[in-house]
Amino acid sequence: MVQDSDAFAADLLRGHTDTIVLGVLRRGESYGFEIYKTIRDATGGAHEIKEATLYAAYRRLEKDGLVESFWGDETQGGRRKYYRITDAGRAVYQRNVAAWTATRDIIDSLLDPRGSGRAPERH
Amino acid sequence: MAAIHRLLDEAFAGIEPTPEALDLKDEIRANLEARVAELEAAGTEPDAAARRAIDELGDVRELVADLPATSPWNAHRVRPRPAFVVRTVLLSIVAAAALALLLLDGVGLLALPAGALAVAVAVVALALGVVVADALRQETSTDYPMSPRRASGYGLATAAVLGALGTGWLLLNGVELPWLALAGVLFLGGVALFAGLGASQTNRHKAWALQQSDHYAEQGDRFTRDPAAAARFGIYTLVIMVLAVVAFIVLTVTLGWAWSWLALVGGFLLMMIVLARMLFPPAR
């Protein structure tokens, strides 16, 4: 059962990869591993989005003009590719968050997590 | 760290090295290195850290799948095994040396005893038989490896036929007649084995290679699509060759042998140009 709920959460997370990445970048420019780490730590380490999935998201976002990238000037080690959110990216992020909030309310009322199991009785 | 570089090279093998692909590779490399550094700082062994970072990465191949590939052949490329290359080269050298001895004896530069000659023939036959069997056992870019039994069958047949030919060569150079029986048995056995193996041979091409050849077959060439063009080419060829032969005779009579052969070469060249023009007509 634990396995099932894990898979369910992972699917949900994956479905919102682009918005999650935009959300991380909204707080400031960042590079691949840092973004990955932020997401991992935000879930308390319980869930992660595979890095391969993230790379696909960066490419998609960049192609759509929602983020822009630039190479850092590290003096040692491999050079890092940084991502920065664009104004278009912010707009899409706001829209997606609004859509998520609306959807979440609908799903909450449909799945009824407060556990009454039936339509609430009126007194 | 070395494991990281190897994995990246494998994942990007067969990908056209466009700036975009190289960028992605560099980006992934830097991030992997950062993750390994984090794991090592937490006390993980370097090797285990590299392995874990790679595991966490997920399927890189999926990621590079939409980058343009250099060619299907490159994407499916199988490298030859170094041990196989070394074996083949060494066996070929041994076979070549034995063959050289046989030839030197044949032209009379060496006078080896009959026993040594028989050994040389056996060495050539067995070495090349092993080379054949070994080659068929290898997976290649287009073919799956052959089963061990079938591959050794081909190797054995090769050795038998070569042994028979070698024995025949010795007979021509004056070895006693009883050997003829051995040569005959070897030859018939080898040919029978080849026939049996050939008749029961099934396809071992890989799926992508078959698709590729289907694709080429569909395109077809002009002569299959347009038989009239093939007939026209036949007539042109006849005319060109008749003209060339006539020119050859005339030139031989007037200028002599030194120049007349040019007529035949010219005719042949003209024929090839006509063939090229008719098989691949210029686009309109």
Automatic annotation (TrEMBL), chain A:
InterPro entries (alphabetical): Metal_resp_DNA-bind_regulator (IPR052509), Tscrpt_reg_PadR_N (IPR005149), WH-like_DNA-bd_sf (IPR036388), WH_DNA-bd_sf (IPR036390)
Transcription regulator PadR N-terminal domain: from which residue to which, for each copy? 21-94
The protein in question is named PadR family transcriptional regulator
Q: Which organism is it from?
A: Protaetiibacter mangrovi
Its organism's taxonomic lineage begins at: Bacteria, Bacillati, Actinomycetota, Actinomycetes, Micrococcales
Automatic annotation (TrEMBL), chain B:
| Superkingdom in the source lineage | Bacteria
Regions crossing the membrane = 84-104, 110-133, 154-172, 178-199, 233-253, 259-280
Q: Which InterPro entries match?
A: Perm_prefix_1 (IPR047928)
Q: Does the keyword Membrane apply?
A: yes
Keywords from UniProt, A to Z, are: Membrane, Transmembrane, Transmembrane helix
Task: Work out whether the entry's keyword set contains Transmembrane helix.
Answer: yes
Q: What is this protein called?
A: Permease prefix domain 1-containing protein
> Can you name the source organism?
Protaetiibacter mangrovi
